[in-house]
Amino acid sequence: MEEIKVFCPATIANLSCGFDVLGVALDAVGDEMIVRKTEEKGIRITKITGQDLPAATEKNVAGVAGLALLDKTEYTGGFEIEIYKKIKPGSGIGSSAASSAGAVWAMNTLLGNPFSASELVEFAMEGERLASDVAHADNVAPALFGGFTLVRGYNPLDIVPLPTPKELYATVIHPQIEIKTSDSRKILKTNITLQKGIQQWGNLGGLVAGLFQSDYELISRSLEDHVVEPIRSILIPGFDDIKSKSLEAGALGCGISGSGPSIFALSKSEDTAQKVAQAMERVYEAIDVEFDVHVSPINELGVKQVF
Amino acid sequence: MEEIKVFCPATIANLSCGFDVLGVALDAVGDEMIVRKTEEKGIRITKITGQDLPAATEKNVAGVAGLALLDKTEYTGGFEIEIYKKIKPGSGIGSSAASSAGAVWAMNTLLGNPFSASELVEFAMEGERLASDVAHADNVAPALFGGFTLVRGYNPLDIVPLPTPKELYATVIHPQIEIKTSDSRKILKTNITLQKGIQQWGNLGGLVAGLFQSDYELISRSLEDHVVEPIRSILIPGFDDIKSKSLEAGALGCGISGSGPSIFALSKSEDTAQKVAQAMERVYEAIDVEFDVHVSPINELGVKQVF
User: Fold this and answer.
1) Pairing relationship of beta strands A304-305 and A3-13 according to DSSP bridges
2) Do A201 and B199 touch (CB under 8 A)?
3) How many C-beta atoms surround the C-beta of residue B287 within 10 A?
4) For the segment B273-287, what is each residue's pLDDT rounded down to a tens digit?
């Protein structure tokens, strides 16, 4: 194969109780990317549509992630990348992760799959490092593994794929304000109380158990965040109202997607997820905030070839 | 039934990454208790062997837990309790929890099981409150549910039973020094770094996933404690040496049992758990610390009737 077109999913990181460790891939929101082998060495971004992003390889997350992969291969040629960007940077649903993950997954496929999914995560993390100064894996892991993933730890990188209950749907609303991941990290406190830590790891354990058992009630009870949400939600217009209306509309849980400003909800059934979307929309219409809203099944494959 | 004899299991709380939320019940270590219906109201502790413990109902954890149950029944009689204590108080393997859990389980059985396991946990927590000023559930939950349990949260109490991988064995060594739970809690810091919190909930998620998948390697990688062990282990003679020798002997993980001073290890196979026990013994023999050591399968039933 000389060329491949891929879908690069948006992802929700953190998922309330799993700050910096949990993420899930979406199916209805994502970029597309065409990656093509070239005889010329190195990586060139030959086209970007949809967003105004740097095309210089070393300044583009897909370029940087691709270079990390290229550095570990025997392959003597290079790659051209076309990026059809649909996820808005700074939206909090893994825009940079989608590009990083999509690039390395496509290259790995074109090279005959020399690398494991975990190795691809490590390459894609270099794109994340460019985007936010931190090589975190909580978006690139679900983008590459699909479904829900847990980043158990980084030394060494340990990604644990988690099961996807069949009836889960996600709703994501993106208010049209930009919060940079780096800014959003800065407002976090360095310390938390042990008491809040205990609550958080109790909930994280509950969510993981809920996913394994498709126990929607347990998932719902576990989608709590006493650590980060109280701080970051201040930056997001209408957060408390969106959350309470989403829960009233039947969502299992609702919280900040990644570092925001997008807000996610998980629901049991597409119908409920649509009702949650409508409830969220009404809040932003009432306070005149522009938004995008998405309802999506969980994407169990992650990055995938499209035709 | 007018009288019942029960086995009241010892339990390991915390399990490294699950401070205050995880616990597991043992099968080879525990108390026995005979509980008998009486026409006379109230609860009387009529016999205690093995340890010097208060026999006054309001000062005995089994008495207090039993009174909490009695307070919620229509039953007009009372109970007599004989306690055959084998677990040493202050050993860190749930001595008070075994008595509290055993008493309420036995009474519930004699009354025809009017209460759920979760309700029994709430009664038994009153015994824990007497023992350590904190009504924690991380020992009484596994004592009553059996196997591994997660206390997701307390408001309301939410116990999540977790699966037991079939080949897991526990080793517990109890150095003959006493650390009171209340003292052992006092030395903990009120705050932890967010970074350590993230490590801890990553590991907790990994351990829960490992239990669901019987993934012994994942269980092993997840049995880490960056929060409490570095502080509490200072109180336990030879801790670092016991831990490193246990891991060398093949243990999946090793840490402080509850608030200590007992040290636990989990192993895949009884044979390995025995080798770990020998490695632990050699450390204490070399530094002249008196000890008890136990190798035990996981007790999947919790408190149970014996004949």
Assistant:
1) antiparallel
2) no
3) 10
4) 999 999 999 999 999
Residue of A nearest to B22 (CA): A202
Q: Going by C-beta distance under 8 Å and a sequence separation of 6 or more, which residues neighbour residue A156?
A: none
CB A191 to CB B188 under 8 A?
no
**Band of pLDDT at residue B179, cut at 50, 70 and 90:** confident
B261 prior amide bond cis, ω within 30: yes
R_g of chain B, CA atoms, integer Å = 19
Q: Of these residues, B57, B149, B171, B181, which one is catalytic?
A: B181
Read off the pTM.
0.96
pLDDT of residue B181: 66
- Name the band, by pLDDT with cuts 50, 70 and 90, for residue B178: confident
Q: Nearest chain A residue to B207 by CA: give it.
A: A205
Q: What is the pLDDT of residue A249?
A: 98
Which tokens is B83 given? Answer: 């306690």
- Burial of A75: CB neighbours in 10 Å, binned 0-12, 13-18, 19+: middle
Taking all residues of chain A, what is their mean pLDDT, rounded to a whole number? 95
Name the residue facing B194 among A152, A188, A207 (closest C-beta).
A188
Cβ within 8 Å of residue A183, ≥6 positions away: none
Instruction: Identify the DSSP state of B81.
Output: E
Distances (CA, A) of A114 to A39, A111, A149, B35: 19, 7, 22, 65
What is the arithmetic mean of pLDDT over A73-94?
95
So what's the pLDDT on residue A179?
A: 73
What domains lie within chain A, and their CATH numbers? 3-162+300-305 (3.30.230.10), 168-297 (3.30.70.890)
Residue A240 clears pLDDT 80, i.e. is over it? yes
Rounded to an integer, the average pLDDT of B102-127 is 97
Residue A151 to residue A161: CA distance in whole angstroms: 9
pLDDT for the residue A189: 86
Residue B214 φ then ψ, to 5°: 45, 45
Task: Provide the pLDDT for residue B177.
Answer: 86
Q: Which region holds residue B110: left if phi is over 0, alpha if psi is between -120 and 50, else beta? A: alpha
Query: Is A40 marked active-site?
Result: no
Residue B188: the pLDDT is 87
Question: Residue B208 and residue A208: Cβ atoms within 8 Å?
Answer: yes
pLDDT exceeds cutoff 70 at A181: no
Alpha helices in chain A (DSSP H): 61-70, 95-110, 117-132, 140-145, 181-186, 194-213, 216-222, 229-232, 239-248, 270-286
Q: Is B193 a catalytic residue?
A: no
Q: Which amino acid is at A75?
A: Y
